[in-house]
Structure formats: structure tokens, C-alpha cells
């Protein structure tokens, strides 16, 4: 990893990347932000580009992803468009509504969007630089998987951002779906040499059971890749946070408060439970 001109003197920053979508990047960023804020560190979240139809309106009327709003609150900050300068709201498989710095910037197809890459990279790097000048630490979140090598030349959210801003990268993987150790190795191996040099370590998310069982596999991954696993996070079935993509809500999953919780009626007593269902339709 080589230095990028103009980044010296800026506050520290790290990119939390994933081996897949819904690996746990958003939650890990929120957790790190909260832990640092509690220690008195001036910390801010950042996601260069988010793709979600679920957004939050900021105090100035802009739109950002819901995860960045949660992360801002974890930092003790109000949600701001600075934390998510590019938001894509899909209108189908091939077109998206583009929000830049919280404001509508038109509808584009995939091919048209790629032609805007240079301008959008300037937007996200300018915002990140501004945050690094103002805060002690900036915790950045990637988008989807960092290993979408067919999109690497136009990437502004994952390794493209890491290269432009000279960021180290932590890879998060979802062990609940299986194959996570292979995902860590394969994701690292498929990257180019410069991108590989930015991978500082791994985090395994959504583990059920005794972490000691993982120890032999973690050690083998370290021997193969030369990179440590910095943490194993447990699966928490009672964690209810806003989902941003369809992978987070598989068909058949029941969402909402646990059934053991009583429902309080309007008269202050225990009332009847209201059951709400949503029909999942094709796009």
C-alpha cells in the first residue's frame, strides 16, 4: 500500500468491507462508532455510495441511507448528507434514481451511471476528506462485496475508495450462511495486488456456538493469507435494525418483537395482538 498525495495530516480512517451483501458491515460500523464515541473520540460514519429504497430525511431535507442515520446516532451526531453523499434508489434491475449530497440528480441506467464515475468519485473523496479534517476518526462502510472485480474500474464505494483515500480495509463475513472462511480467502485472492495489500484483517459475524471451535480454521486462514482474524461476533436473534436490501429479509422470516412480549391495549391493559403481513412481489 502506497501513500496517496494529499492524505498526509488527515485523521485516521478505515473501510469496513464485506465478502457479500448483508455480511454485517453496517452493524460493525455502528458498533465501532459507539465504542469510540463512549471513549470521547470524535468519530463519524461514512458510506460513499449506498443502494437502497429505504432512506432517512436529514434535518436539511436531504436523503441518506438508514444505516448511516443509525451510525450517526451511535456517534452522538445528527444524520447528515455528508455521511452518505451518493444514494441510489433502484427503480428496477437497470435503472436507479440518483441522490447526490442528499438532493435528486436524475434517473440513470447502469451504463450511464458508470460514465459519471469520475465526478462521483470527486464528490465522495471531497466529503471524506472534509470529515477527516473535522473528526478524530472516520469509520467507512463499503457496499456489497469488495470482490466485484467486473466493477472495479468504476468502483467508488469499496476498493476504489480505499485506493483513492489510502484506507486500510477490514473484511467482514457472514458465517451464518456458511462458507465464510472460504469467502475470506477467495475474496482476498481474487483482488489485484494493490487491493490485496490494503486488507488488514478479518471479522467473522453471526457465529452461533463456542468460538473455540473456529480456532483451527482461523489459524489456517492466517497461515494461508498472512492476515489475522480480529474478532468473532455472535449471532443475535433479538437484534432488530432496519434492513436495506432483500437479502436481510429472506422469505419466511418473521420480523417484529418476540411473541412472548405482551401487547399493551389503549386502556393500559394487555390487549389483542395485531398481526401485520407484507406481500413480497417481484420487482
Describe it:
This protein has 283 residues and is α/β, with parallel strands linked by helices. The protein has one domain (12-239): 3-Layer(aba) Sandwich (Rossmann fold), CATH 3.40.50. Helix content is 29%, strand content 23%. The protein has 8 helices and 12 strands. Strands 2-9-1-10-11-12 form a 6-stranded parallel beta sheet, sandwiched between helices. A 4-stranded mixed beta sheet has the order 3-6-7-8. It has a two-stranded antiparallel sheet with strand order 4-5. Helix 1 runs parallel beside helix 2 (66-74) and helix 6 packs parallel to helix 8. It is globular and about 50 Å long. The N and C termini lie far apart (41 Å). 37% of the residues are buried. The model has no long low-confidence stretch (mean pLDDT 87).
CATH architecture: 3-Layer(aba) Sandwich
Give me the side-by-side strand order of the main sheet: 2-9-1-10-11-12
Q: What fold name stands as the CATH topology? A: Rossmann fold
Radius of gyration: 20 Å
Helix content: 25-40%
Give the overall pLDDT as a whole number.
87
Give the SSE order as H and E letters.
Answer: EHEEEEHEEEHHEHEHHEHE
Structural class: alpha/beta
Question: What is the CATH top level name?
Answer: Alpha Beta
**How many alpha or pi helices?**
8
Largest sheet data: 6 strands, parallel
Amino acid at each position: 500500500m502506497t501513500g496517496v498525495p494529499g492524505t498526509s495530516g488527515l485523521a485516521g480512517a478505515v473501510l469496513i468491507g464485506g465478502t457479500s451483501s448483508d455480511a454485517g458491515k453496517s452493524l460493525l460500523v455502528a458498533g465501532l462508532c459507539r465504542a469510540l464515541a463512549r471513549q470521547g473520540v470524535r468519530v463519524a460514519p461514512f458510506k460513499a455510495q449506498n443502494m437502497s429504497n429505504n432512506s432517512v430525511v436529514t434535518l436539511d431535507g436531504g436523503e441518506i441511507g438508514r444505516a448511516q442515520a443509525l451510525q450517526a446516532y451511535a456517534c452522538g451526531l445528527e444524520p447528515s448528507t455528508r455521511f452518505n453523499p451518493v444514494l441510489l434508489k433502484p427503480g428496477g434491475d437497470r435503472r436507479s434514481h440518483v441522490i447526490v449530497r442528499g438532493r435528486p440528480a436524475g434517473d440513470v441506467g447502469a451504463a450511464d451511471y458508470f460514465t459519471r464515475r469520475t465526478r462521483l468519485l470527486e464528490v465522495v473523496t471531497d466529503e471524506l476528506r472534509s470529515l477527516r479534517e473535522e473528526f478524530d476518526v472516520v469509520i467507512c462502510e463499503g457496499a456489497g462485496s469488495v470482490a466485484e472485480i467486473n466493477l472495479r474500474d468504476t468502483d467508488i464505494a469499496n476498493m476504489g475508495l480505499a485506493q483513492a483515500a489510502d484506507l486500510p480495509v477490514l473484511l467482514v463475513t457472514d458465517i451464518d450462511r456458511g462458507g465464510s472462511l472460504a469467502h475470506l480467502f477467495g475474496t482476498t485472492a481474487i483482488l489485484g495486488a494493490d487491493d490485496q495489500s490494503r486488507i488488514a484483517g478479518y471479522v467473522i459475524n453471526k457465529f452461533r456456538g463456542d468460538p473455540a471451535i473456529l480456532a483451527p480454521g482461523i489459524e489456517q486462514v492466517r497461515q494461508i493469507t498472512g492476515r489475522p482474524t480480529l474478532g468473532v461476533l455472535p449471532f443475535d436473534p433479538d437484534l432488530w435494525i432496519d434492513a436495506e436490501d432483500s437479502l436481510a429479509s429472506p422469505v419466511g422470516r418473521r420480523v417484529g418483537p418476540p411473541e412472548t412480549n405482551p401487547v399493551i391495549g389503549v386502556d393500559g391493559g394487555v390487549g389483542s395482538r395485531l398481526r401485520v403481513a407484507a406481500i413480497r412481489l417481484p420487482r
